[in-house]
Specification:
The protein is an alpha/beta fold. Helices cover about 65% and strands about 10% of the residues. It has 19 helices and 12 strands. The strands form 3 sheets. The protein has a 6-stranded mixed sheet with strand order 6-9-10-3-11-12, with helices on both faces. It has a 4-stranded antiparallel sheet with strand order 2-1-4-5, with helices on one face. Strands 7-8 form a two-stranded antiparallel ribbon. A hairpin with a 2-residue loop joins strand 11 and strand 12. Helix 7 packs antiparallel against helix 9. The longest helix has about 55 residues. The chain is elongated, with a radius of gyration of 35 Å. Bound molecules: adenosine-5'-diphosphate and magnesium ion. The site of adenosine-5'-diphosphate has 12 residues, from helix 11. Magnesium ion (MG) binds next to helix 11.
């Protein structure tokens, strides 16, 4: 974790600062108590053992026992509170991340794979959790103990302290080398874990295709290769530790040997007591032991650090659309949606060219065109998921860049191509937009679709599995459509929302919602003839250009592209 990430992480969740300082303080007290032990041993040896004063020895042993009990309570309190702070921290980070993600522009989710974002919320949070649970308290305890032991060594005897730490620069160099290699190994382990996982995932989700083309062996070879690289990266990591630990051991023993060598002469001269030597040896162990603990926990620290970096890369992502826009349009205006010379591109390539049209209140407009013609893009601009690059998209006369995100979400309903249901009951999915204010059964009865739900054992209370698992694609789409209609927004956008419906369901919902759609302004991207013919006007898109905007009869008479589309439809209908 570099310093920048460290301080940012510290500042990210201000409410844990105080508990963190508090628990560090307790850990400091624990360290202080730990340092008392060797002093008591030292005195016991000098004044008890060497002078055969067994009462004194017993007394010191008793004190030692007391410090051990005190240490037990204080140290466990410290571990507990550091752990608690860590867990609280991770919880807050997860909340922040979730809130931030839901505020980001749709654009962001189209650029970044869902899987990767989910990994941020799961595997990265898990590495933070591991660090919070095990790493943080070990590292804090280790650092404090090293610090305390250093001071204690100096307090016992300054000259011997200098001598015993003579070897430290060597240790420092070794540690630096270890860290460099460990970092590299660590990165490649992470890297290859990702590769192994995605190769596994591809092998599993693509299993039908793989078997159908009997491609098992080459897939296996591929997986073996990736798996082998992962193995090598892990071995490198093991080698680093194998190099570092013996080195730690050598420095520890060397430093103890130096101390004993010089201490022996000092004891001879009478300037050092045997007890002091023993205390020194204890403190030196207090110095070296935590180093081992630190190198063990280094992985956890690195892992938490890089997870925090990834967390910050998401938090640094600014939502543009939800921050621009200050006005709410006057909805008395009859001109509900207007495109004025709109040009738009997702990346480099322009996908809408000079598109202009306007839609009046209550109109039902169909958009037709080949795949890739730009139909969904128009829908996304109407939803204010994007702003046009050039030209204006106006809502009731207000440019979409000036309109608040909130207004758009409150007044425009949307049924996307891939319908999505939340876990929970059908009922909850239907009243999603307005949980309190809907008398659902009455509304469904009025629309005439209440009996449709009799197909389910539990009717409207039927649970929808994860991603709508126990409900067919068509049924899911039907529910998603109803959800949008029940939201009763001024503007409603269907993007091929009826593709999975059987004709009967589609007719029943469209007939049923006719009355509702009559007062809503509806934009329907459709490919079914009947839906299209019934629309008041039809927009014909071709290669990102609007090439016709009229009713069915007129288009059929004058528009070549529409004629082609129409003859193709007639073949399938
Ligand atoms: N998120 C996106 N990023 C980049 N290009 C996109 C994106 N979505 C659509 N496109 C491109 O924009 C063009 C129009 O797409 P779209 O509006 O989805 O067409 P339609 O809905 O008519 O099939 C296509 O060439 C498509 O490849
Ligand atoms: Mg589309």
């Amino acid at each position: 974790m570099n310093d920048n990430t460290f301080f940012r992480s510290y500042k990210l969740v201000p409410e844990v600062k105080r508990p963190f300082l508090y628990s560090s303080l307790i850990a400091m007290v624990a360290t202080l108590i730990r340092m008392v032990g060797p002093q008591l041993i030292s005195r016991g040896i000098d004044n008890g053992v060497l002078k055969a004063d067994y009462n004194y020895l017993l007394e010191q042993s008793f004190y030692y026992f007391i410090t051990l009990i005190a240490l037990y309570f204080v140290a466990s309190k410290a571990l507990l509170s550091i752990g608690l702070v860590g867990e609280l921290y991770v919880k807050r980070v997860r909340e922040k991340l979730f809130r931030h993600l839901s505020s980001l522009d749709i654009n962001y989710f189209e650029k970044n794979k869902t899987g990767v974002l989910v990994a941020r919320m799961t595997s990265d949070m898990q590495s933070l959790n591991e660090f919070a649970r095990e790493g943080a308290s070990s590292i804090i305890t280790a650092l404090l103990t090293i610090f305390g032991a250093t001071i204690a060594v100096f307090l016992v005897d300054v000259r011997l302290a200098f001598l015993s730490f003579l070897i430290l620069p060597l240790l420092g160099i070794a540690t630096k080398i270890f860290r460099n290699y460990a970092d590299k190994a660590y990165w490649s382990v992470r890297e290859w874990i990702g590769q192994v996982l995605s190769s596994l995932q591809e092998g599993i989700s693509g299993v039908r295709i793989i078997q159908a083309y009997s491609d098992e062996t080459s897939q296996l070879d591929n997986f073996k290769k990736v798996n082998n690289e992962h193995f090598k990266a892990n071995m490198q990591s093991a080698k680093n530790i194998a190099f570092y630990f013996p080195f730690l051991e050598i420095t520890r023993v060397t430093s103890i040997a130096i101390v004993i060598w010089f201490a022996a002469q000092r004891i001879n001269q009478g300037t050092l007591s045997v007890g002091e030597l023993v205390a020194l040896l204890f403190y030196l162990n207090y110095f070296f032991d935590p180093l081992i603990m630190l190198s063990f926990n280094y992985d956890l620290l690195r892992s938490a650090g890089s997870s925090m970096k990834k967390v910050f890369s998401i938090l640094d992502e600014e939502p543009v659309l939800s921050n621009t826009g200050i006005t709410t349009p006057d909805m008395e205006n009859n001109n509900v949606i207007e495109f004025n010379k709109v040009n738009f591109s997702y990346g480099r390539e322009r996908v809408l060219h000079d598109v202009s049209f306007s839609i009046n209140k209550g109109e039902t407009i169909a958009i037709v065109g080949e795949t890739g013609a730009g139909k969904s893009t128009i829908a996304k601009l109407i939803l204010r998921f994007y702003l046009p690059n050039e030209g204006d998209v106006n809502f009731y006369g207000e440019p979409s860049k000036d309109v608040t995100q909130k207004w758009a979400r409150k007044n425009i309903a949307y049924v996307p191509q891939e319908s999505f249901l939340f876990r929970g009951s059908i009922k909850n999915n239907l009243i999603y937009s307005n949980p309190e204010g809907i008398d659902l059964e009455k509304e469904l009865l009025e629309i005439g679709v209440l009996d449709w739900f009799e197909r389910y054992e539990n009717g409207l209370d039927q649970e929808v599995g994860e991603r709508g698992a126990n409900i067919s694609a068509g049924e899911r789409q039907f529910i998603a459509l109803l959800r949008a209609v029940l939201a009763k927004r001024e503007i409603i956008v269907f993007d091929e929302a009826t593709a999975n419906l059987d004709i009967e369901s589609e007719n029943s919902i469209l007939d049923a919602t006719d009355t509702l759609l009559a007062y809503q302004t509806s934009i329907i991207i459709a490919h079914r003839l009947e839906t299209i013919i019934n629309a008041e006007k039809i927009m014909v898109m071709h290669n990102g250009k609007l090439v016709g905007f009229d009713n069915h009869e007129n288009l059929l008479r004058n528009n070549e592209i529409y004629q082609d589309l129409f003859s193709a439809w007639k073949l399938v209908n």
